[in-house]
């Protein structure tokens, strides 16, 4: 009897499933029949290749001008290649991250998570993490802030997007480094700002002439600790000049401290934010460069007069960052793991930079003048006359070497052609091999 009831239950369940999925129709008092319009008919494609062209055209027309511009740019992610390739820029030594430690911290946090921690989040970010970050940045980077000025974001791009939408109205002028980070200019242009490129010299972004200064930009984007992509470290005199100008004009400075923590000689230089006395500097840094790229956590520190605006904008955007990642990162700070990891990586990156410079002197002399650098994850090489950086990067790619043309980051033509070379993510053997293959590619062009 039990078997019979189980069989009846199975049949009833099967018929109900067929009805839900649209294969049969049930009529009360009559029975169940095969549906007149089977669902398979809706999933069967009859679109030809010619038809797809029209569909694509309609889809493209739905895109904004800004998105179409981004699609045509060089900023979209490239297909992933083999890890550890020379000379991939932006990427830290992911293989050196203590994953076992991270796993233990994550497991412990999840086991101890309260119902409130899993159900609610703070727009600014996990408060203990903000407290730990404020203490660390104050001690090691000279940043001056309280925890309520700190927002936990998903990276520098996210931070700049929040600030551009908080402070910039359509048509406002923004000054930016040239060459400079293309991702930043795209964010600013998406906010309908008028981005004006300014030249970079050996001391950092050049303060424009007094005539142009009267234009009074709404925002100035700077990478003073390690200018991208030239690697120039802004001098103290130039920093004070920019702070004085911001105080006089009322403009804001966005300080992108993307890898200033990795300084190979002496202590990291004080931040612009730490020198600022007028509340003109917005500070951002990313843990993607300091720990590993897919962490997608960063810090945004804003002056007090912008806090409410960023809170309001964040509330209607993504609300807050994920709890677990913030909590684990907090433990990484408070238990001393972050400081230890940074010290280890400084030594590792200094060694890898030394290998790159030594190999370059041996194989690239007369082809590429690789610059020494005091900080960061990448450096710059200036090409000899007659070799163009785009052609050089293409020739290098054919030999399995990743370099980025400096011209990709320039809004106006540059006097010199160059290549951005990352050294952090590749081991010494890969760096030496990469230099030899790059030398072969450049010799072919020379």
Short description:
This protein is an alpha/beta fold. It is built from 18 helices and 14 strands. It has helices at 2-20, 40-43, 49-61, 65-71, 99-112, 115-119, 127-140, 156-167, 182-190, 210-213, 236-249, 272-275, 287-290, 304-316, 323-334, 337-363, 389-397, 428-445, and strands at 24-27, 31-34, 150-153, 173-178, 194-201, 204-205, 219-222, 252-256, 281-286, 298-301, 368-370, 378-383, 404-405, 418-422.
Overall description:
The chain has helices at residues 2-20, 40-43, 49-61, 65-71, 99-112, 115-119, 127-140, 156-167, 182-190, 210-213, 236-249, 272-275, 287-290, 304-316, 323-334, 337-363, 389-397, 428-445, and strands spanning 24-27, 31-34, 150-153, 173-178, 194-201, 204-205, 219-222, 252-256, 281-286, 298-301, 368-370, 378-383, 404-405, 418-422. With 446 residues, it is of the alpha/beta class. Strands 3-10-9-8-7-4-5-6 form an 8-stranded mixed β-sheet, sandwiched between helices. A 4-stranded antiparallel β-sheet has the order 11-12-14-13. It has a two-stranded antiparallel sheet with strand order 1-2. The longest helix has 27 residues, at 337-363. The protein is globular and about 90 Å long. The mean pLDDT is 87.
Our estimate of the beta-strand percent is 5-15%
Average pLDDT, rounded to a whole number, is 87
**Number of E-state strands:** 14
Count of helical stretches = 18
Salient structural properties:
Aspartate Aminotransferase, domain 1; 14% strand; 8-stranded mixed beta sheet; globular; Aspartate Aminotransferase, domain 2; single chain; alpha/beta; 18 helices; 446 residues; 4-stranded antiparallel beta sheet
């Amino acid at each position: 009897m039990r078997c019979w009831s189980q069989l009846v239950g199975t049949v009833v369940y099967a018929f109900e499933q067929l009805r839900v999925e649209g294969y049969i129709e049930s009529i009360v008092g009559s029975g169940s029949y095969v549906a007149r319009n089977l669902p398979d008919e809706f999933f069967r494609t009859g679109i030809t290749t010619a038809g797809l062209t029209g569909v694509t055209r309609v889809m493209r027309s739905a895109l904004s001008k800004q998105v179409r511009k981004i699609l045509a740019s060089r900023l979209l992610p490239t297909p992933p290649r083999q890890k550890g390739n020379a000379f991939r820029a932006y990427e830290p030594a992911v293989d050196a991250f203590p994953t076992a430690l991270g796993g233990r911290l994550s497991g412990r946090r999840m086991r101890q998570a309260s119902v409130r921690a899993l159900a609610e989040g703070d727009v600014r970010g996990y408060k203990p993490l903000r407290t730990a970050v404020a203490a660390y940045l104050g001690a090691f980077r000279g940043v001056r802030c309280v925890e309520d000025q700190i927002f936990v974001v998903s990276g520098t791009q996210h931070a700049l997007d929040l600030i551009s939408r908080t402070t910039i109205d359509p048509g406002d002028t923004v000054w930016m480094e040239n060459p400079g980070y293309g991702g930043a200019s795209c964010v600013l242009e998406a906010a309908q700002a008028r981005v004006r490129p300014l030249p970079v010299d050996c001391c950092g972004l050049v303060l424009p002439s007094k005539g142009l200064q009267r234009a009074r930009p709404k925002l100035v984007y700077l990478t003073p600790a390690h200018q991208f992509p030239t690697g120039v470290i802004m001098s103290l005199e130039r920093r004070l000049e920019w702070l004085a100008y911001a105080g006089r004009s009322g403009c804001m400075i966005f300080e992108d401290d993307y890898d200033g923590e990795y300084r190979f000689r002496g202590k990291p230089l004080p931040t612009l934010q730490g020198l600022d006395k007028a509340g003109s500097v917005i500070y951002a840094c990313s843990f993607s460069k300091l720990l590993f790229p897919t962490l997608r956590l960063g810090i945004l520190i804003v002056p007090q007069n912008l806090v409410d605006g960023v809170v309001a904008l964040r509330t209607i955007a993504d609300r807050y960052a994920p709890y677990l990642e913030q909590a684990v990162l907090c433990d990484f700070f408070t238990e001393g793991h972050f400081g230890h990891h940074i010290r280890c990586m400084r030594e590792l990156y200094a060694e890898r930079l030394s290998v790159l410079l030594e190999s370059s002197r041996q194989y690239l002399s007369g082809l590429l003048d690789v610059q020494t650098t005091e900080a960061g994850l990448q450096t710059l090489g200036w090409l000899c006359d007659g070799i163009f950086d785009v052609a050089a990067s293409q020739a290098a790619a054919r030999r399995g070497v990743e370099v980025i043309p400096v011209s990709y980051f320039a809004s106006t033509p540059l006097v010199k052609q160059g290549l951005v070379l990352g050294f952090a993510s590749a081991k010494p053997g890969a760096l030496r091999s990469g230099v030899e293959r790059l030398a072969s590619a450049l010799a072919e062009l020379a």
